[in-house]
Amino acid sequence: MIPTILVALDGSIRAGGVFDAAATLARALQARLVLYRALVIPPDYSPAGVTRGHDDLPVYLEKEAHAEFLALQSHAPDVACDIRIEESDQPWRSILAAGEAVKASLIVLGSHGYHGWDRMLGTTAGKVANRARRNVMIIHDRERSSGSLVTGTSS
After folding, report:
1. Which residue, 12, 15, 73, 93, is most buried by CB atoms nearer than 10 A?
2. Which residue has the higher pLDDT, 128 or 46?
3. How far apart are the first and last CA of the chain?
């Protein structure tokens, strides 16, 4: 039985597809979704302590994420959803911790594929999949990918 599914959504254009896949699975399993966002503050952003003012960026990012999650929920009103948003320096670690905290039976997240530094450092999806103590489902955006898997042609 899978009562709780943690869905890690990053705000990319692929997030809707990840949510749709998770909602379809939740319907079939009668599971509850926990929509999760690890907020990453850009390292070159000047914090309030340096600028002597209130730091509005984290609050703004949290409101944006919350609004995005509510919009996604409106596409699946029949699926029970909770929202969890946290600041993070390392999203993959935060996703794993959130999975533990909500006792998720499954973690669902999207894959952006391997490019550049990802080949050496690893992607968030790869790190979560390789380190999770829970089952992980990675949603691939095959339609946006190039190569023989999509077109059926060989190189």
Report:
1. 15
2. 128
3. 42
